[in-house]
Write a structure and sequence with these properties.
alpha+beta, 2 domains
């Protein structure tokens, strides 16, 4: 069988958009994020005035809605708890253990949001070149697909939440010296921030199809951009939280707390926006 003419877009080894011609005329356009979050393909036919959309079957639609709702809610709550923990630390209304407890519970919600985001990628309906519908596959709890930009982005995000968990657990330890604080608490914090930034960069590659640009009319772009801003602020916070061996005090505790607070609110806002990015 002759393969249909195909045009792809993306960056490096990643394909984020594919377009192929239909035998009877017209085109089908698959976009990675659009298919994964909304479960649709765009159809351009000679008789249509604009794009039509072919939706995935009801099984995929129900999956996408449930997974999106769980992930979005988890990020809203996790971000709110992180912001609350930073506010407690900044305004001095609680001790270190109370702050660590709030952060830890927030981290559990981030873990949940990260893993469910990965499940969204793994169980998204797939496209078939030459077809005009998305195909539903059996449910899976795990996959290994590093050549897919959406999988790699979600995997790095989930891994980042796990590394943050190490940081949050170690923050309960008492009697640490300066070097132990930096090694057990600060280093995992920075590594988690790097993973979040890498995940956000790949998400921007996906939504922009490899060309950095502003897409103010795209809900997906706003979600990714707001979350990436949160990741940047988390990194600023982590760098400011480094404990200087000479003095035994952080570089700038105010910047560390405010960076965490505002960055966490960015993730909450991103979660609220994500609620509306559904089939």
């Amino acid at each position: 069988m002759e393969q249909p003419e195909q045009r792809t877009e993306g960056a490096g080894p990643f394909t984020t958009r594919a377009t192929w011609r239909l035998p009877g005329g017209g085109e089908v356009v698959w976009e990675s994020r659009l298919a994964r979050r909304r479960g649709v393909l765009a159809l351009r036919t000679p008789t249509a005035g604009g794009d039509l959309h072919a939706r995935a079957d009801e099984v995929s639609v129900r999956r996408l809605r449930r997974l999106n709702a769980v992930a979005a809610t988890a990020f809203v709550i996790g971000g709110a708890l992180f912001a609350a923990g930073a506010a407690v630390a900044q305004f001095g209304s609680g001790d270190a253990t109370e702050c660590a407890s709030i952060y830890f519970v927030g981290g559990l919600f981030f873990n949940t949001g990260g893993y469910v985001s990965l499940l969204q990628v793994i169980n998204a309906p797939r496209h078939v070149i030459g077809g005009r519908a998305l195909v539903t596959r059996r449910w899976r709890w795990w996959s290994y697909e590093p050549t897919r930009v959406d999988w790699l982005s979600a995997f790095l995000l989930f891994t980042g939440t796990l590394v943050f968990g190490v940081n949050l657990l170690n923050s309960f330890l008492q009697g640490l010296n300066v070097h132990q604080v930096n090694r057990l608490i600060w280093v995992p914090d920075v590594v988690g921030c790097v993973l979040f930034l890498a995940s956000g960069h790949l998400a921007l590659v996906e939504v922009c199809h490899g060309r950095p640009r502003l897409l103010p009319r795209g809900l997906g772009w706003w979600i990714v951009a707001v979350n990436q801003l949160g990741s940047v602020l988390f990194m600023v916070s982590a760098l400011a939280a480094y404990t200087r061996p000479a003095t035994g005090s952080p570089v700038n505790i105010d910047i560390a707390n405010w960076g965490t607070l505002v960055g966490a609110l960015c993730f909450s806002v991103g979660g609220v926006l994500q609620i509306y990015e559904r089939p």
